[in-house]
Structure formats: C-alpha cells, structure tokens
Amino acid sequence: MAAMRSAYDLRHVEIEGCGSRLPCYVALGDRIPVRLDFYAEQCESEMCPIRTDALSTITSIMSVPSRMALNQRGYLTWRVYNEDGRQVLCYYVMVQTQTYIQKTLRTFLEQLDSIQDTSMAFTRSSFENLKDNVQLSPCNRPPCRLKRGSKQFITITFTPDSDLPDLKNQVTALLAGIPFPFIGVDGVSICDKLENEKGEKVSCPLKAGTKYVYKDSFPVHSFYPTVEAKVHWALNNEDKNVICFEVPIKIK
C-alpha cells in the first residue's frame, strides 16, 4: 500500500483481511472495513472533528463491485475529501479479485500453512509400477513443486478390468485430513483426452483389457497459497475408483 498526493500526513492503512503481502485478495461483492491513521493540518471549521496535535483515525467500508473479471489484478485508489472538496488523503493498493469459494479456501490454507506436516515423502497407488504408469511434468522427485500461475501436465497409462461407459477425475488436496478439490480438473470427464497404445485418439466407452493413455494438464491458480499438501488423484466410474494414487506436492 502506498500514499500519494495526500495533504494530510498518512501514517497507516489497514484493510481487513489483507496482510503485509500483496496483492490484497478481495471477493466480488465484498464490503471490507478500511482504517486510515493520519495527522491532519489546521482545520478551521467549527464542525471539524479532526485534531492537528494527535493521530486521527477514519474507518470506512470499501465495496467491491460484483461485476468484475475474476482473478484479475489492478490498483485500487482511495481518496478522502474535506468539506471544501479538497483531496486530503489518497492511497492505492494492488488487489486481485476472487470468488467467495476461493476466498474461503485461501483463508483456510493460509491458516494451515504454519502447521503443515512437511515429513511427507511417500506415494501410494492402487496399481503396480506407479513410476511407469504415471508421469507428472515438471516433477523430478517428491514433493512435486507446483508453481502458481503455471500448468502441470500428467500422463496416466491404465488398463480397465471391465467395460466402462465413462471415467472422471477425482483430484483433491488433502490438508489436515480435509480434501479440497482442484478447480478445473476435479469431477471432469477424461473421455475426450484418451489415446490408445498407438497414440491414436479414442473415447468412451472403454473396453476391458484394453490399454489406454490419458493425457491432460491442469492450472495451478495464482490464488493458491504457498503450502505443502498431499494430492489424491483417482479415475472414477460411478463413484468407484478404477485407479488411484497419492503424491506429495509443494505449491510455491
């Protein structure tokens, strides 16, 4: 946060929910309390409540418009005028828009960030030869380091033991025993991203005993906090796991 063109001596700005790190994440439709601490110049009005010899405080509400683009960054400028229409306080701060779901998830993960167990160094799987059948890129060794604002690529080779009309992803990050879905990939059908052993495009239904290769990518959203977690990845048909595995990750 920074002050600019303020006639008064602006000392401190506090936006509820926004710490020292930028950008400040705001949810569409939010009403956010803001506090300004400052020293004022001489006030000649008899109705003026501001003293010049002490630190003064103004508390107000910042309304975030509900019709804005999501996950966009920009600068919010706040101006305060006196009764004569003169600009006496002005500051700006970088913000990024998000939904309430994103806000809730971010707040929860940030609270867990300081208590995460960093001892995870294992991977579990429901099928053999995990390293041969699952490739994550870029990822050389666990924990897989996921960079915010980038994409992660995955290839899964599998052979179903029964005919399947459809197959969907179930991808969650396990934090403190609570699963959080990966936005944009969890619950999505993989039928349009399948190949056979020859690299030819195929689709559902899947045949028992036939080898398939699933190739996909998923976004590591910029609103994800830096945190270590364990990701559970499964391919499901009617709530039944066809294959599943777990891998530790570190979002940075």
TrEMBL record:
Point out the signal peptide segment: none
Q: What is this protein called?
A: (African queen) hypothetical protein
A GO BP term here is: sterol transport
Instruction: Give the record's family classification.
Output: Belongs to the NPC2 family.
Keywords attached to this entry: Secreted
Cellular localisation = Secreted
The highest taxon in the source lineage is: Eukaryota
Can you cite an annotated GO cellular component?
Answer: extracellular region
Domain (MD-2-related lipid-recognition): residue spans on this chain? 127-249
One Pfam family matching this protein:
E1_DerP2_DerF2
Any one GO molecular-function label of the UniProt entry: sterol binding
